[in-house]
Amino acid sequence: MTQLSELHERWMRKPGYRKAHKALEDEFAIVRAVIAARKHAGITQAELARRMGTTQPAVTRLESGRVQPSLRTLRRVAEATGLKLMIEFEPLDQESLGTIASKSVELVAKDQNDAPGQVRRYAHASR
């Protein structure tokens, strides 16, 4: 049987699929972040739903990418998983990467006093 990852690899060779996939990159990132937050908390979809005050099918839709979550929903996910919601913007051009990298290092240094096990993602850029 063909694995989904194998199909994805094969389809990524097709320009139309690749373009459509790139257009949905942000939505995929949100889905991955929600799933990672739930797994980090070590809870099931049902438990996440209970903590958020919603239903397990609603969490399933959220994790499948069938719905685009509101900022309020993302805050509820963060609260339910004991994490802090962080939203970041990154430059699209290579010239600005040096500025982002130096700011990222500064932010990481300031974060050393956070609670143990706190998960944070920072922009990383190499020159």
CATH superfamily of the largest domain: lambda repressor-like DNA-binding domains
Can you write the helix and strand succession as a string?
A: HHHHHHH
Number of domains: 2
Nearest-integer average pLDDT: 79
The CATH architecture of the largest domain can be named as Orthogonal Bundle
Tell me about the biggest sheet?
none
Q: How helical, in percent, are the residues?
A: 55-70%
Please state the structural category: mainly alpha
- The end-to-end span amounts to 42 Å
Approximately what portion of the residues adopt beta-strand conformation? under 5%
Level-1 CATH class name of the largest domain: Mainly Alpha
Give the SSE map.
Blueprint: H1 4-11, H2 15-23, H3 25-41, H4 45-52, H5 56-64, H6 71-81, H7 97-110
Helix pairs in contact: 3-6, 4-5
